[in-house]
Prior knowledge:
- The structure is a single chain.
- By secondary structure, the protein is of the alpha+beta class.
- It has a single domain, classed as S-adenosylmethionine decarboxylase (4-Layer Sandwich), CATH 3.60.90.
- 22% of the residues lie in helices and 34% in strands.
- β10 (168-169) and β11 (175-176) form a beta hairpin.
- The protein is elongated.
- The protein starts with a strand and ends in a 5-residue tail after the last helix.
Amino acid sequence: xxKHVKGRKIRLEGFNNLTKSLSFNIYDICFxxxxxxxxxxxxxxxxxxxxxxxxEIIVEVTNIIDAKLLHMSTQDYEPRGASxxxxxxxxxxxxxxxxxxxxxxxxxxxxxxHTYPEHDPATGIATFRVDIDVSTCGMISPLHxxxxxxxxxxxxxxxxxxxxxxxxxxSSGMKHFIxxxxxxxxxxxxxxxxxxxxxxxINIISDNIFHTKMRKKRLKLEHYLFGPESExxxxxxxxxxxxxxxxxxxxxxxxxxxx
Length: 259
């Protein structure tokens, strides 16, 4: 049975083979002025979001969307970055036991995570990006994990792409191109999370394509400073750094250089 967008229960002819794909990109911005502070920040990111941490996040996402984890593979890179790939199926199950290197596969579905830490030595701005892709087939939907994913990282900018592809056929032979109500990805993000962000959409509802961008509304400087030299900042320097951080966030949000 399939719950259609209008709420009707529909008897399917075979398996629900709609594919639902969510691409989730987050950016965490920091100010680390000295070379030592920049390296310290990158070391912190590598430790906080290494392959084992990404693995834990993927296992939790799998549980949230009520899927079964079949296989997982992880990789930490030198000098920076990590990747995790998982395969999942629609049935819920126990996670795989922990290992040093993990790759995950789902039955007709998958989750991948990759990290990209970098810094600008000229300005002291350091940026950490994580890309997570969740693709599911059947009744389960990756949208239900959005709250957890956003809260799992220090998300200053969030870019989300969601698409439902293919069709499934009911017992009368009619095609169904979507099996849930949606007008925007924001429909699936809790109000207390959305209230912290400025968000806008570009949606092609007729083609089941949805795009949302979000950036933090307020910047509290203390949350963005890294390194001991930050404790000795003058009021003028704090204003300059705040402007640098705001510019970085806005440029990433708009996907273009503004100066």
